[in-house]
Amino acid sequence: MGDQSDHTRLDLDVIKEMGTGLSNVKKAFDGIDKLSDKYEDDFGNSDLADKFGDFADNWEISREKLTGEIDALAQIAKAAAKAYEDIDHQLAEAIRGAQDPKKKVK
């Protein structure tokens, strides 16, 4: 039975790490400067500059959508890990209470 407990602990750690990692990805995306602001003066051709501006605008919209989805997944992973830990704690308390009938279970 110890193997199952270790496996469960590992899974909780993976879920927590996933939440933290996704939050870090979101922060990195939030910190990216607008592409058009950074490079617009580097193009000699106005048509090329316009095309790059279109690309940068589309990237900005897509990045905002992706960032929102990443943030939602990070929050879900963190909430799931907390819920599993709470359930594990409640089950442990119930088992301890069942083993010691004098102890009150919450």
Q: Which helices and strands appear, and what pairs or packs with what?
A:
Blueprint: H1 2-30, H2 35-39, H3 46-99
Helix pairs in contact: 1-3
Euclidean distance between termini CA atoms: 25 Å
Number of strands: 0
Shape designation: rod-shaped
| Radius of gyration based on Cα positions | 24 Å
Q: How would you characterize the overall build of this protein?
A:
With 106 residues, the protein is mainly alpha-helical. Helix content is 83%, strand content 0%. The protein has three helices and no strands. The protein has helices spanning 2-30, 35-39, 46-99. α1 (2-30) packs antiparallel against α3 (46-99). The chain is rod-shaped and about 80 Å long.
